[in-house]
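Supplementary Text 2. Reproducibility record for the structural model of the 174-residue chain.

All settings were left at their defaults, and a single model was retained for analysis rather than an ensemble. We include the record here because the model underlies the residue-level annotations in Supplementary Table 4.
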Amino acid sequence: QELTEMRSSLERRVVERTQELAYAKDFLQAIMNNVPDAILTCDTDFTIESANRTALELFNLSEPGLKGRNLIEFFPQEDNAANLNAECSDHRQFQLKPEGGRSIPVDLWKGVLDNGNGHSRYIVVLRDITSKVLAQRDLEMARKQYFHQEKMAAIGQLAAGILHEVGNPITAIA
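Retained model, structure tokens:
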């Protein structure tokens, strides 16, 4: 009798814990899928293990199409692979080449996920910075245009001053 009660109690606790874990997993997945940045987990060779919804949209792939692929293959320049492999956790800009699309400028951050058993992996966060790059380009064009206008205004003032100085002696002679 007592053994049956203990078994029943343990089974209830297992069911409760399983429900709690399922809720926690769903909750974390909902958070990940609503983050505006692409988040990937990769092994130490940069093989993609998981990705949030934003990453799937950025890479233009489904989860089965992205999972198992090497992250480095999406960065076409050779120096990008070297920079990605470098031991750093700062933000760096790269050109991402998604499946069937044009290159996208991205800000990349890489961090180490250490689960304590000596088996490390990476978390990679990518942010599409296309609008930032376009805004910087527009700002630079506006600066150049402003500089050119200022230069032309200075030349105009210089020419007016020269004409004035040339005109004074002619007026005195006439």
